[in-house]
Amino acid sequence: MKGLGKFFLVIVAAMMGLLPAQAQTKAEADSAYAAGRYDEAISGYSALLKKGESAEVYYNLGNCYYKTDHIASAILNYERALLLDPGSSDVRFNLELARSKTIDKITPESEMFFVTWFRDMVDLTGMDGWARTGVVAFVLLCVLVLLYLFSSKVSLKKVGFFGAVLMLLVVVLANVFAWMQHRDLYERSGAVVMDSSVVVKSTPDESGTDLFVLHEGTRVEIIDNSMKEWKEIRLADGKIGWMPAKAMEVI
After folding, report:
1. Per residue in 77-96, pLDDT tens?
2. Domain count for the chain
3. Residue 148 and residue 81 share a domain
């Protein structure tokens, strides 16, 4: 038992020792970024991301790459930050700024206004934000149901009933939105072209017909991930083709 106790003490001490080191690494990376030592900051932020994903760290890393004119890497990290924190206006602004420096100017396919509105609703906050919204709405739902059941006044019963219906709708939508973001986060199909230029083919083979050329920083959606060396991709404007997997990096 004494040996087991010493073992747990060693583990706890090691964990306590790791926390300051991680905090110091983040502080050092931030300090390097503030001082304009972007290569040093890139190394620090990259090391942090190996320990776990963070929207803030991806955002800072994207800023470092942007400052050093590595636009494709900046876009990749802004996209990853946006997956974790879709409601961030700062990330969206910097992503659009980086995209404005890419060669390919792709006009997205038109869609019905309510589809765009629905997408904007889903991206108002992140998965954790929708989870918190769902919990709060559920608590309010319970309170309003109790108000409806036990209130003696008709006016309060109406408030309880209609309020409960509204909160039930919020609970359902919050769970649906959180599930959609969970799916996007763990079933990633987006990718960014990392090569300076790549020829998109009609078939997954170098002998296939050349369809069009893409340049670094362009976002694509992988629609066929069954092959290792080649991926079938779709652009925002609806164009489809095959490109080498090594020319892109999954968001």
Report:
1. 999 999 999 989 999 999 99
2. 3
3. no
